[in-house]
Amino acid sequence: MASVTSLTDLVNQQLTSALSATQPDADPLLRRSDRADFQANGILALAKKAKANPRELATQVVGGIATGDDLIKDVEVSGPGFLNITLADRAITENLAARLADGDRLGVPLKADAGITVVDYAQPNVAKEMHVGHLRSAVIGDALRGMLDFTGERTIGRHHIGDWGTQFGMLIQYLFEHPGELAPAEDVDGEQAMSNLNRVYKASRAVFDADEEFKERARKRVVALQSGDKETLELWQQFVDESKVYFNSVFDKLDMEIRDEEIVGESAYNDGMPETARLLEETGVAVRSEGALVVFFDEIRGKDDQPVPLIVQKADGGFGYAASDLTAIRNRVQDLDATTLLYVVDVRQSLHFKMVFETARRAGWLGDDVTAHNMAYGTVLGADGKPFKTRAGETVRLEDLLDEAVQRAAEVVREKARDLTEDEIQERATQVGIGAVKYADLSTSPNRDYKFDLDQMVSLNGDTSVYLQYAYARIQSILRKAGEVRPAAHPELGLHEAERALGLHLDAFGDTVFEAAAEYAPHRLAAYLYQLASLFTTFYDKCPVIKPQPPQDVAENRLFLCDLTARTLHRGMALLGIRTPERL
């Protein structure tokens, strides 16, 4: 890998040198964290610190910057002290050529201070169908892992599935009394697995609600489960396995890899929860209140102005979500050596995780060297602006939603297809439809709600993944039609305004990925890619590549820009978990 310093950083190195010569105290204000807005605010901030006139200071800095060289063509002062910097065409082309030569990484370096981030995402419930509410956690979490991995961070996935609690006593007891109703997991596909589980769940719930004696037997079965009874655990494992078959079928449709070793549900922390409770009580972090073990927070109060507690252990001795989440933190920090804990969960759980994180800090399990962040996401809304439901008012099954997206995408692909077979149309429809669903989610700030509108999602116009996928496919078509003329960088050539705009944006890819990953903001990468496709459209309209054919060196240079644009689109979309078909 040959990392390439971005043009922005190269310029800021020159600015730093010039500023340091003018203002010896300037260096603390020129750290990388200030790089993005330095040109807008750097001089003004320094002038304020130095109690100097910003325009006069900017003029001094300009005098110390070498212009007319291979990097900066010109620089001038404008307004109260802003710097307008024009880069040399040669610098743009040479930097882009170095990125293209680096292959898949496009010259983007790996960060030096990489750590280990545990990402808690995609948390379905055993014995229950996945619905539209499970979509965002899976899609956002997968994209965050893609971006973090690309920057050099080591990510570990954790799918904290709901596989423990009262309902499992009910299910297990029913299976004890009605043996053979679940076929072995290896004998069924995903839909059959969930069909079996739904049938058993509904049947067991009906008996549980109607038969008090069965209800009592089910409660005793919960105790047996938590105590590790062998026969009880074997039946529990059977429908956990059934559920995993189903989970994998849905995640396959989402074009996501879910590794079995990363599915670590609530049950995995069962043995550690008593110790968690003991440690919290012994250190005084948690106290007994009305028989329950709880943690209080002065700043968190209910409607009656009474403190809202985090319940670690119930009065009857049972453990809830707080105990498993706290035990998970201990495991992830102490056993997995995590430096960051990232939770991709519904915004409605924000208060819960605020209390869990604070409790873990009081207990010393989250130290200054570990960051815990709740990536709270908003709700998927229907066209009416209300939570997405079926016409009957039921929660939409995730499989149904994905199937409809692929069906709509097939209509769009078939309408545009020229030389694709029906099998190829169906393959592209899957990539376009699933990509449309993912991109609609990821192009929205995670903490905001968004409307699920399939017509807009699969549109060829506007900020959609289909627009980006067609831009990529269009470039591949251009490269094929170029014949013997191949992409090649020519730094000696001057650049058209549209070429410069496209080139400068291409050079910003690495910085954008780093910033989006650091802020847990996949929508920033999505916005970058949409602008890239838009800039390419402008470039292709104003700068002929094939017809009318320009001189060969110009054609080669423009094909080089096409090639790098396609590679950047492909890599950026892949980080978001979206495929880019070669032909559409």
Can you offer a commentary on this structure?
There is one protein chain. The protein is globular and about 90 Å long. Strand 3, helix 5 (135-151) and strand 4 (154-158) form a beta-alpha-beta unit. The model is unreliable at 28-40 (pLDDT under 50). The two termini are 32 Å apart. It is 53% helix and 8% strand. It has a 4-stranded parallel beta sheet, with helices on both faces. It has helices at 7-22, 38-50, 54-63, 89-101, 135-151, 166-177, 190-210, 212-227, 230-253, 273-282, 321-334, 350-363, 398-416, 422-442, 454-457, 465-481, 497-507, 509-518, 522-542, 552-575, and strands at residues 72-78, 82-87, 116-120, 154-158, 287-289, 292-295, 310-313, 340-343, 371-374, 380-381, 450-451. Helix 4 (89-101) crosses helix 20 and helix 17 (497-507) runs antiparallel to helix 19. The chain has 584 residues and is of the alpha/beta class.
